[in-house]
Design goal:
The chain is 71% helix and 0% strand. The longest helix is centred in the middle third of the chain and has 24 residues. The radius of gyration is 17 Å and the shape is elongated.
């Protein structure tokens, strides 16, 4: 019974691809590219400041992808 709840939470459908999904992908891409740029430019790959900026961009991107692709449940 608990497995069914977990399956319903992570049930995504690629057909639900919309503008919010694109925006979420851009957030992830922006966060990763900013981290790579910062590390290459300043030689600091383990700086807490760059982690905080990257997390602020990547985490909403991941959550946005799950929310925008989530399959809506039908009610009877």
């Amino acid at each position: 019974m608990n497995i069914d709840i977990i399956k319903n939470i992570f049930k995504i459908n690629i057909k639900n691809y919309n503008m919010f999904t694109i925006l979420s992908i851009l957030f992830i891409l922006g966060g990763v590219l900013h981290w790579i740029y910062w590390g290459a430019r300043y030689g600091q790959w383990t700086d807490i400041a760059i982690y905080s900026i990257t997390i602020v961009l990547v985490l909403p991107g991941i959550i946005g992808i799950f929310l925008s692709l989530h399959e809506k449940q039908e009610t009877d």
